[in-house]
Amino acid sequence: MAIVDASSLLKPLYPSLTWQIETAEKNVYLTFDDGPHPEITRDVLDILRSFGFRGTFFTVGQNMERYPEMCERILEEGHVLGNHTYSHLSGYGTSKSDYLADAERWSDRYQTGLFRPPYGRILRKQIHALSTSYRIVMWTLLSWDFQVGLDRDRMLSKMKKGTRPGAIVVFHDSEKASGNMLQMLPRYCSFLKEQGYSSFAIPQV
Ligand SMILES: [Zn+2]
Q: How far apart are CA 141 and CA 30, in angstroms?
């Protein structure tokens, strides 16, 4: 299976977005998109807690309305919430005003300084409008956990090779990804620990 990470194409076009965190420390930034989910997010939180790691959860507003107690637990355990729009909207083919309204609807309940565009699809005019209130967070390493038939071993070794100080790593606490993610996450966390890395929540600027 040929897997091409769109970040290699997008990064040179959008250098103002956050693709990694500047640090010389052995810190990585685990991120979890598309939750919260009552069981899957709970499992992720248990895994992170067992390693003493922190993460950033880019949640979908619709899911937050369904499972507000998971959001509370995320925050109580020292993690951070990021805006992933209310209805998981792609920026492509969406007007600036509709996109902003959907992002704004997310923040009815919580305030955050972090935003990640669903599918990584965002247009310049949308970036321009959101960047006054948000740090727009992309990624360094994508786990491809949502991919059916993923070769997990191969992907994990690719992620291990790509791990470096400041890397932003994407997993998904969604039903679609959970089969791969719940297998890969503990193994990746063990690797990080062995290599002397910790995971932190992305700083809000
Ligand atoms: Zn998403």
A: 10
User: Is it true that the peptide bond before 36 is cis, omega within 30 degrees of 0?
Assistant: yes
- Which residue out of 33, 34, 102, 145 is catalytically annotated? 33
pTM recorded for the entire structure: 0.96
pLDDT of residue 1: 44
For residue range 131-142, list pLDDT tens digits in order: 999 999 999 999
CB atoms within 10 A of CB 195: 11
33 included as an active-site residue: yes
Across the chain, mean pLDDT equals 95
Q: Is 172 a catalytic residue?
A: yes
Q: Which fold has domain 18-199?
A: TIM Barrel (3.20.20)
- Domain parsing of the chain, residue ranges: 18-199
The Cα–Cα gap between 31 and 172 comes to: 8
